[in-house]
Amino acid sequence: MFMSFKAGFISLLPNVVPIVFNFGLMGFLGIPLNVGTSMIAAIALGIAVDDTVHFMVHYSRELNEVHDQEAATYRTLAALGRPIIYSSIALAAGFVILMFSNFIPTIYFGVLSAVVMIVAMLTEITFTPILMMTTRLVTVWDTLLAKMNKDIVGTTPIFHNFWLWEAKKVAVMGKLSTFKKGDMMVRKGDVGDEMYLIINGKAGVKESGPNGKIIKNLDPGEIFGEMAIVEKTVRAADVVALEDVELLGIDAGALERLRKRFPYTAAKLFLNLSRIISGRLRETTEKLTHAV
Which of 93, 59, 94 is nearest to 76 (CA)? Predict the structure, then answer.
């Protein structure tokens, strides 16, 4: 859903709390740890995690729709709050029946399992929403698709011949930045190792100096600064925002991580980069030829 280890870790926390509470309660009441009571944690985790899975799936859908974590959390809680409470109470009631057994370990198992179900319910409707609202889980790719025309995502040269999941791997390693109209996004002579994909707005490559003319317009879906990925070097031209612009920046370090983890995807990306650089070199050569 999120392609994030952080999201996986967050989904575990609400289910760890009831288990810790269970063993703490056992120690406080002097209930022995044996085969029966040790099974409570595994069984309770297997049951309670279902609520977390439902919550995370619904939250992901809401987040893709509203693109706001707080609003998505409230909508998820409104939709799933009552079902989580009802199912947890039903499970707890089922375990409580075991307290009428004449076998002491069964009594312990039933009562403690019921307590764990209630505690899991409380953490699910309190702790999980808090984590969702306070932890950034909106990936760069989610924002990219929200702000960028989806046709451009499919046709931008940097993602040529990419499957959607491959493009996502690249995008989540980048970072988003915004510039106001007239801001200088890249200055000639600056050293950089980052290339940029224009998500929204228009930019222009301009001649140096206060009265420099726009040499080339850059539209959404186009990239610039790609030479810095190949070799960390000084910028060859100024790039200014002609409108309010949003960029996705990808640096050399991110591409190196991509190469190590997903070599096939990295190979396709580098091939696209070489095509882009080759095309721009050809344009420059043609201009020089005509000028001569």
Answer: 59
Q: How far is CA 164 from CA 161, 168, 171, 274, in A?
A: 10, 6, 10, 21
List the CATH number of the domain containing 71: 1.20.1640.10
Tell me the pLDDT tens digit for each residue of 21-69. 989 999 998 888 888 788 888 887 787 788 888 888 888 778 767 767 7
Residue whose C-alpha is closest to residue 252's, from 239, 268, 233: 233
> Do the Cβ atoms of 64 and 142 come closer than 8 Å?
yes
Query: Final residue of a domain: which of 73, 105, 138?
Result: 138
Residues 116 and 169 in one domain: no
Cβ burial of 113 (10 Å; 0-12, 13-18, 19+) is buried
Mutual angle of helices 252-261 and 263-291, in 10-degree steps: 140
Quote the DSSP letter at residue 178.
E
pTM: 0.56
pLDDT in tens, 128-170: 888 887 776 655 556 565 555 556 667 788 888 888 778 877 8
N-term to C-term CA, the chain: 56
Q: How many helices (H) and strands (E) does the chain have?
A: 10, 10
